[in-house]
């Protein structure tokens, strides 16, 4: 058994107490949102319309569907990839290899679903099953995290994450002990981060759109916009899949309940909240306002994609002509930091673009309910917290150079505001 490592790493998320509270609060919030979205008043801050009994939550069919979905995505992950990318250097100086075939998995899933629907697969029955499916996904995430915790007990010290090894069972279970849990070349964290949850999210959105068409004759413009915007976001994440290899989730965080639940349950069932809301609360939307909302989403996407691509291009090859002229600061690690272009505007321009898109996803739902704005509010809190964690890690990594970067680029996410 590996000894607890990194016990001096500062505790995050409020330590064991915060981790315990989040483990309870996150699933409760998810079920609250699912129940409220289909209720008449759709009040985010009010009590749920009723408390579901176990017979409404538990369904062996939902569990079977959930496991079949994971099996299908795992099979698509194992198909030959157009490229195999190397991850960042690990503690033991080795690099892991990752298949880049996420977009292929999205296209193949779309083809399979299309074939299924034309053969009579009742996709529009999915919205009625959201509650038991979310319960099955939560149960799967919990059992999966337990297995990951047990697997980490056998892992060598060099395979453990910098956080998540405090010695406190609850905290370590929540954050995850092992950095890159794998069986042979199958990487569980990388697989879960991008495929079952993100593709599941667009599939749920599509099912809601089809059910709306069955109920009202055709999908509403608002439903089309939400589906289109979120499909663009998921397609982008899978097209630029390699970029996920430099995120803190892959490089720094272990794989525990937080990411397992986040990837498998939270993303598909809460990120589809706007489409759920629209099915039960149709909103009138005219073309002029729809065009304006499309413009907001386009501006957000332009900033998000521009910033992410600029950093990824620079990190891959600083002499690439697209970034060679940008101003940089040298650091003691040999890596440089961009101080002009998108990264000279604020220290996290990609978060700014992401937040603008989040707003555009809520606007088609009108302004009379707070519920569809849940994602925007939650995401603001998540990114502010994430930015703080990233800053701490960068300060540690780059020392004085990071202080210089903060002096040159004083705002974190929103120019002149934050
Ligand atoms: N929808 C969702 O739920 C979520 C979406 N996201 C999105 O995912 C994307 C990835 O986000 P995330 O992983 O948090 O972090 P980032 O892509 O912002 O990466 C942060 C890292 O970038 C590098 N960096 C920071 N400043 C500079 C600079 N000036 N020049 C060069 N490199 C710099 C540092 O790493 P190093 O120097 O080591 O390269 C730093 O650790 C974002 O677009 C975010 O909006 C993220 C979380 C949740
Ligand atoms: C619910 C918990 C408090 C936190 C769960 C967090 C996860 C839902 C997110 C952590 C980082 C994520 C990233 C993405 C989706 C959400 C999670 C998994 C992206 C894949 C979204 C698309 C972007 O283009 C890349 C993102 C990387 C990080």
Automatic annotation (TrEMBL):
Its EC number is 1.3.1.70. The chain crosses the membrane at residues 17-37, 57-79, 100-123, 129-150, 255-273, 285-304, 355-384. One of its GO terms (molecular function) is Delta14-sterol reductase activity. One of its GO terms (cellular component) is receptor complex. Pathway: Steroid biosynthesis; cholesterol biosynthesis. One of its GO terms (biological process) is cholesterol biosynthetic process. It is an enzyme of class 1 (oxidoreductase). It is found in: Endomembrane system; Endoplasmic reticulum membrane; Microsome membrane. Pfam families: ERG4_ERG24 (PF01222). It is a multi-pass membrane protein. Keywords: Cholesterol biosynthesis, Cholesterol metabolism, Endoplasmic reticulum, Lipid biosynthesis, Lipid metabolism, Membrane, Oxidoreductase, Steroid biosynthesis, Steroid metabolism, Sterol biosynthesis, Sterol metabolism, Transmembrane, Transmembrane helix. PROSITE patterns: STEROL_REDUCT_1, STEROL_REDUCT_2. It catalyses: 5alpha-cholest-8,14-dien-3beta-ol + NADPH + H(+) = 5alpha-cholest-8-en-3beta-ol + NADP(+); 4,4-dimethyl-8,14-cholestadien-3beta-ol + NADPH + H(+) = 4,4-dimethyl-5alpha-cholest-8-en-3beta-ol + NADP(+); 4,4-dimethyl-5alpha-cholesta-8,24-dien-3beta-ol + NADP(+) = 4,4-dimethyl-5alpha-cholesta-8,14,24-trien-3beta-ol + NADPH + H(+). InterPro entries: ERG24_DHCR-like, Sterol_reductase_CS. Belongs to the ERG4/ERG24 family. Catalyzes the reduction of the C14-unsaturated bond of lanosterol, as part of the metabolic pathway leading to cholesterol biosynthesis. This is Delta(14)-sterol reductase TM7SF2. The gene is TM7SF2.
